[in-house]
Each structure stands twice: as C-alpha cells, then as structure tokens.
Specification:
- It is a single chain.
- The longest helix has 19 residues.
- α6 packs across α8.
- This protein is an alpha/beta fold and 248 residues long.
- It folds into 2 domains: 119 residues, Response regulator (Rossmann fold, 3-Layer(aba) Sandwich); 110 residues, Arc Repressor Mutant, subunit A, CATH 1.10.10.
- The radius of gyration is 18 Å and the shape is globular.
- β3, α3 and β4 form a beta-alpha-beta unit.
Length: 248
C-alpha cells in the first residue's frame, strides 16, 4: 500500500505512519493543504488519508479539488466529528470518515476495505454498477433478473427496495448518506435530479427497515448483519458478519 497522509499534527502523523509501516505500507507525510493537493494528484499513491483542519487549503476544499482531478480513494481523519462535517466530507467524494481519536488498527482495516472495493472494480475508473451480478458476502444480487438472495434463499423485495439494495451492493463497504441514496436511486431509474427534501429521510429509513427484514427473512443469522448503520452519517453494506451499530 502506498499511502499519502496529509496531517499537520506531527506527532499524530508520525505515530500513525509508524504503525502503518509495520503492516507493509509505504507512507508519505505532508503537513499542508497546498502541498497535499499536489502530491495527491501525482498518481503515486493508492490512497489518501486527509485531515480537515490544515494550513492553507483545508481538508474539505482539498477533497473537492482532488475529486475534480482524480478518483484516488480518500479517507478523512478529523477531530471535527459533528454529523454535518461527516456528511459534507462524504458528499464531496471521500470514501470513508474517521473521527479523532481513532484506533490505528481500525484505520488499517478501513484502508484495506476501501482498497478492496476499488480493486474489485478493476481500476479507479471502473464502476461496479456496470456489472449485472454482484456478490457481497452471502448476498448475491442479479440486476438483469432483479433477484436477490442471501445464502441461496431469495429475498422478497419491492422494486424500490431492490434498487436500494443494488445501490448498496455496487458500492459495498462504502458509507452512503440518505442524500446520496436518494440521488443514486433516481439516477439508476433514469429520473431527473431533484433537490433533496429532508422529508425524504424518513421514507429512506422505512425502505431500509424493509430491506433489513427481507435480508433477515432469507438468513436470520447472516442477513441482519449485512446492512449496517454508521451513527450520524449513513448506512453501509458489508460482508463483515460483526453486529451492526443499530439506531432507529
């Protein structure tokens, strides 16, 4: 793994880099936004770890500018853990968001998960949504036949619920906000873009609850753990069978 860590806290940066280097990673450290943007766009790294509070260009602006030039994976690391910061970071194109303080072990796991997702697409420019059949752990979903199954048992889904599950499966292990889900489902259905209405939040939650019930009905052991809640941010489809972080 070739990692670019853009962080102005020298002590934290060195400690994080030291841990990652013990796990077969090469890590380049950059302490300011301008230099970070140059290095991130150079095509010499596999992933960017990005602090939000940087001298010069801040992390959100850097992420916005980087997304205009590159599809390199980005994980935001920040002490600004408020919900709005997480949502803005993800909607600007970050692949994941970790609030400080964080566990280096968890960070390494998230780096590997993001890189697996990008590798499974064949290249940074490939789009998993172009596939017809996707598998995420015990879940298999066939877009052409519009069928989904967990451990070989079919899931009973409405048309909207199938589209919702397909959006998750095509971006497995990526946290998606309600806004992103709403926009991507409309795009998948060929519907025009629409300004997000906060009232849609509850509708999305209801559909997500129904999808969870369908997954659980197909496999009561593995199904419920596939669709996870990331508190204050959104939702993620993951093959990891660990318990999900539930919220209403």
């Amino acid at each position: 793994m070739r990692i670019l860590l853009i962080e102005d806290d020298e002590r934290l940066a060195e400690r994080t880099a030291e841990y990652l280097r013990t796990h077969q990673a090469t890590v380049e450290l950059v302490a300011d936004g301008e230099r970070g943007l140059v290095r991130a766009g150079a095509g010499e790294h596999d992933i960017v770890l990005l602090d939000l509070m940087l001298p010069g260009i801040d992390g959100l602006e850097l992420c916005r500018e980087l997304r205009k030039r590159s599809k390199i994976p980005v994980i935001i690391l920040s002490a600004r853990g408020e919900e709005v910061d997480r949502i803005v970071g993800l909607e600007l194109g970050a692949d994941d968001y970790m609030p400080k303080p964080f566990s280096p072990r968890e960070l390494l796991a998230r780096i590997r998960a993001v890189l697996r997702r990008h590798a499974s697409s064949g290249s940074h420019d490939a789009d998993a949504s172009d596939a017809e059949i996707l598998a995420v752990g015990p879940l298999e979903i066939d877009r052409a036949r519009r069928t989904a199954s967990v451990s070989g048992t079919a899931c009973e889904l409405t048309a909207y619920q199938f589209d919702l599950l397909w959006v998750f499966a095509s971006q497995a292990e990526r946290v998606l906000t309600r806004n992103q889900l709403h926009a991507q489902i409309r795009a998948l259905r060929g519907e025009p873009a629409q300004e997000f209405d906060p009232a849609v939040d509850r509708s999305i939650d209801v559909h997500l609850s129904k999808v969870r019930q369908a997954l659980a009905a197909a496999d009561e052991t593995l199904g419920p753990a596939l669709l996870k809640t990331v508190r204050g941010v959104g939702y993620m489809l993951s093959p990891d069978p660990s318990p999900e972080d539930q919220e209403p």
